[in-house]
Amino acid sequence: MSNDQTPAADSPFRPDPGARDAAPQFVLPLVVRIERAAPPARTDALETAARAVLVMLTDERSAGEGEWARAMRDWQDARIRKVVRRARGAEWRRAEALPGITVTGESAEVRVFPPVPLDGWPKDLARLQVSGTDLDDPDPAPPADPAAPVLWLNPALDMSAGKAMAQAGHAAQLAWWQLPDEARTAWHTTGFPLTVRTADPARWPALTTSGLPTVRDAGFTEIAPGSCTVVADHPALR
Fold first, then answer.
1. What is the pLDDT of residues 99-114, one digit of tens each?
2. Dist CA 115 CA 237 (whole Å)
3. Which burial class, exposed, middle or buried, applies to 158 when counting CB atoms under 10 A from its CB (0-12, 13-18, 19+)?
């Protein structure tokens, strides 16, 4: 995953190999609760995952001398990777017992954990499945509010819900990094309102050239390297 707005040669989002690839690699784990009888709506799961990333970034334990601060720094010094796994029943209860934060939406529950080494997942998370997060929306999503942050998905890409959740989290993180302090404070204090919508195909080219934070996937799973997946449209960045 890469960010068009970060031109530095050692960008954490640059698709080409660089110094960050030589650093120890970490991943931010997210687990979505998917019970057989009551799976969450797809859009709500995407929005909840994006908020979960923002909640983790701004938690006091992630900053300064907080208990997660070192892991957060190590993660951001290397490639910014996120992986979404699914859990239900006892699996979810075991995941909830691990240090992390659960963020809830209208129907979705997503638990985000401090970063872990790429090959060092806690066993109760490592055994969870990545596949099987093909969620649906029972009702059409209402139009996005242009006065609120919107994460626009590429209409030409067919991503699983888990992949799209990770991409939405990337976009929210990019928006957060680029916001001025006043806008950050306002977004934080209001609980990170946002929507995730699929862009109109006719509008997508303009979005990707608008100067807004744009996620380009590294191509580890599902889609081709360098694909534009999400554009983060925050009012303070227009």
1. 999 999 999 999 999 9
2. 28
3. exposed
For the chain, list the strands marked E by DSSP: 2-3, 26-33, 81-87, 101-104, 109-112, 116-117, 150-153, 195-198, 214-216, 228-233
Q: Residues 179-197: pLDDT tens digits?
A: 999 999 999 999 999 999 9
**CA 227 to CA 238: how far, in whole Å?**
22
75 by DSSP, 3-state: which?
helix
Please say whether the beta carbons of 149 and 236 come within 8 A: no
- Among the listed residues 157, 172, 158, 159, the one whose alpha carbon sits nearest the alpha carbon of residue 233: 172
Residue 114: CB atoms within 10 Å = 23
How far apart CA 56 and CA 42 sit, in angstroms, is: 21
What are the helix and strand counts (H, E) for the chain?
8, 10
Q: Within a 10 A sphere around the Cβ of 7, how many other Cβ atoms? A: 8
Rounded to 5°, angle at Cα 100 from 150 and 89: 95
Do residues 80 and 176 make contact, with C-beta atoms less than 8 angstroms apart? no
The DSSP-derived string for 14-64 is -SS--HHHHSPPEEEEEEEE-BTTBPPPHHHHHHHHHHHHHHHHHSGGGST
Q: Is 238 exposed, middle or buried, given 0-12, 13-18 or 19+ CB atoms closer than 10 A?
A: exposed
Q: How far apart are CA 152 and CA 194, in angstroms?
A: 11
Of 2-6, 69-73, 178-182, the least confident: 2-6
